[in-house]
Amino acid sequence: MDEVTEEFEPEWSPIVCHRLDRLFTSTNAGFSRSSPTQPVVGVVGDMLWEADPIQFAERYPDSGIVESYGDQWPAPCIDYWVYIDVEARLATLSTEGWSHSNQEIALTGKGSEDADRLHEHLARILQ
User: Fold this and answer.
1) pTM for the full model?
2) CB distance 109 to 84 below 8 Å
3) Separation of alpha carbons 10 and 66, rounded Å
4) Which of 3, 39, 65, 91 has the lowest tally of Cβ within 10 angstroms?
């Protein structure tokens, strides 16, 4: 089997969720994971962390988040999505704040390697 067709590790989602949970918690912006609510064996199609909008705006005043919502502020939550395309071996990051466009990250199927890759990109956004 070539690398493109190899399966993802069975513990991929729990490994990635655990690593990213620690990153989001460390921001002190009121993030919590909404999807999946509990890590599941295998690979999920998406993962979502939601931040408290007031805490996020206080932690990241230069993010432009308040301005981006205009009269709709405060938003119900600030969403940070990780969409997983197993066949293409890609993760797409969809984040709010700083006018970041979606980012695509190549995946290996190995939980710890992919967690590191995703962590690196998200940490750079949330520095």
Assistant:
1) 0.91
2) no
3) 40
4) 3
Beta strands in 57-106 (DSSP E): 78-85, 90-95, 103-106
Using CA atoms, how far apart are residues 4 and 107, in angstroms rounded to an integer?
10
Q: Which amino acid is at 85?
A: D
Residue closest to 107 by CA, chosen among 80, 85, 81: 85
* Amino acid letter, 14: P
CA 55 to chain centre: 18
CA angle 4, 13, 63 (to 5 degrees): 100
- For 75-95, b/e burial (b = at least 16 CB within 10 A) is bebbebbbbbeeeebebebeb
CA angle in degrees (0–180, nearest 5) for 20-108-30: 10
Distance CA 3, CA 19 (A): 24
Residue range 43-60, pLDDT digits in tens: 999 999 999 999 999 999
| Chain segment 57-78, per-residue pLDDT in tens | 999 999 999 999 999 999 999 9
Judge whether 100 and 125 are in contact, CB under 8 Å. Answer: yes
